[in-house]
Amino acid sequence: MRHSLRARVAAAAAAAIVVAVVVLGAAVLARLDDQLRGTLDRTLQERAVEVARLAASTPDVLLEPGALEGRLGGSSLLVQVIDQRGRLVARSSGLGARLLPADDVVRGALEDRSAGYADATLGSDPVRLYAAPLGELGRGPAAGGAVIVAGTTAEIEETIDTTRRFVLISSIVAALLAAALATVLAQRALRPLRRLSSGARDIERSGDASERLPATEARDEVGELAETLNGMLASLERAREAEQRFVGDASHELRTPLTALRGNVAYLARHGADPEVLADVQQDVTRLSTLLDDLLALAREDASAPARGEPVDLAEIAREAAAHDALADLDLESAIVSGERPALERAAGNLVRNARRHGPEGGRIAVGVRRNGDRALLTVADDGPGLTGEQAAHAFERFWRAPGATGGGSGLGLAIVRAIAERHGGSVRVDGSRFTIELPLTDVSEPGRTTGPHETEP
Questions:
Q1: How does strand 365-372 pair with strand 328-332?
Q2: pTM of this prediction?
Q3: 77: closest CA among 108, 42, 110, 102?
Q4: Residue 380 binned pLDDT confidence (cut-offs 50, 70, 90)
Q5: Which CATH superfamily, name and number, covers 310-440?
Q6: Could you report the per-residue pLDDT of 190-220, keeping only the tens digit for each?
Q7: Residue 431: CB partners within 8 Å, gap ≥ 6?
């Protein structure tokens, strides 16, 4: 049988309260019983001392009526004096014709001359006994005997029973109150979870990852759970969108090179090897390989979560990107960003290749890294006229190529650069022939300029 979380919380709270009250009640009862019995024992001892003094100073008074009377609360103390042979000398009126039981403590008081306590019964009444030896000096009949003082423990038992019932009733009442309060608190605490569960069922039925779970105002564990689940849904949405874009892009862009490759292969099958056709086949294969590589890279960037990488110096990234271009001029200063080195290397390399592909043949390429406040800027520029304002607005779109553009390329290089920059919390822009990646700095200390081959001093 399944029980709701609210019922389990209420049951656990009630059980905890019951255990706590029972443990506390047991401790209180033990302490109360010890206190009451300790008080009774002291009273019995004090009364025995008084009788012993009376027997030593004025032994004849022991035989007078009322000499042995005493009270403990609402009950009479029972006193009995015996001689050294155990014969009765005197007793209090509360005993009537009864005799206190001759327990071991009585024999110990007579024979071993030692005092002691014992529990006994007098008829049907439970009593507490205290027996003490009397001095042997003096002429009284009780000389060398013993005094026995007893008091009923019925009142103690009644007090303990009353307290025990009170503890039991208190535990039941406390458990009920705790269960009720826990139910109310659990209901209030679980209300946001029920809303999250309902929202999750709606998303499951619709299959739409763009929907989000209802946000909670409370900044607690439930609110954190809602944010985490919504973040997961956002990641799933990005992954689905990236998958859909990848399928659409691949089906659209792969058709042309595959058609050309199929035609060239058919020609080779009919006419045999031809150097020009083989060169076309090799070019088609290279184009397909590059296109697939760029498509996969863009799909990975679209589906990935925000970058959480290592500290990376953009100056090193820029130097490596321009290392194979003899006409690259470097102007670099150290700028540490937090990111994924392979992705940043790909972005910088794409910008350098783009500049070389679309710039004038034999022209210079300027690669620079500088710091601007809390931002790091990586720029790549060529000597060409660059893009117009309208062209710049489309430069980072997928498969966009400027009118009249020469050279190969998949049309995805700049789109990959934008995806990488945005995933690293930055942006990319173009101004004419100058492309700039802007990323947040992680080290805002005093910058230091680096040096290297092909670098120009400012």
A1: parallel
A2: 0.46
A3: 42
A4: very high
A5: Histidine kinase-like ATPase, C-terminal domain (3.30.565.10)
A6: 677 777 777 777 776 776 766 776 766 666 6
A7: 386, 392
